[in-house]
Amino acid sequence: MTWNEYKKEAERTFAYHKYGNLIDQMHCAIGIVTEIGELKHAWSGIGTGDPYIPADIKIKNTNIKEELGDILWYTANLERLIETPEYTFNLQGVTYPLEILDSSAADLLDIYKKALYYDRIIKYADVTKLIHMIRTAVDCICYNNTWLSEDLMETNINKLRIRFPEKFTNE
Q1: What does the longest C-alpha to C-alpha distance in the chain come to?
Q2: How far apart are CA 73 and CA 11, in angstroms?
Q3: Which residues are within 8 A (CB) of 144 and not within 5 positions of it... i.e. 6 or more apart?
Q4: Which residues of 93-114 are buried (b: 16+ CB within 10 A; e: fewer)?
Q5: Which end of the chain, N or C, is surrounded by fewer C-beta atoms within 10 Å?
């Protein structure tokens, strides 16, 4: 599954808010942060900053992959909402992807907090850069553990197809 196919499939289960695009963007930023928290909970040895996960931890690997897929789901929807241009990834020099996820998500949430509470203008170039950093960090975690991000996306969408066969509903 390509990233553009994933974005289209992710939209199918996105819950649009009645107050519009900015709230939808905030939903994605909050979702990215909470999913990173769930990823860290699933990750053994998180305190070390080690980007590798022991291959023999099958149950946790599955949970970690699910959390990475959920991070990508929120990232895909945010990227789609702000119409982010295509990006070519460069994994060289990415040493601590978990720290990149943490700092990028915190910075992303801060942008939306300042827009909501301090009436600051959202600089979408900054949001785009943070989205790219989040996607690069997820790709780096996948690469370091010989997982394909395409597989994570496919698994995530299949999970959502079972949970929401037609599209997302509150029921």
Answers
A1: 49
A2: 9
A3: 51, 52, 97
A4: ebeebbebbbebbeebbebbee
A5: C
14 CB-side CA count, 13 A: 29
Average pLDDT of the chain, as a whole number: 85
In which residue are the tokens 């996607």 written?
135
Query: Which residue's structure tokens are 């905030």?
Result: 26
Total count of residues recorded for the chain: 171
| pTM as predicted | 0.87
AA identity, residue 97: P
pLDDT in the model for residue 57: 47
Q: Is 157 helix (H, G, I), strand (E, B) or coil?
A: helix
How distant, in Å, are the alpha carbons of 21, 39, 40, 119, 160 from that of 64? Answer: 29, 6, 8, 36, 17
Q: Hey, is 128 helix, strand or coil?
A: helix
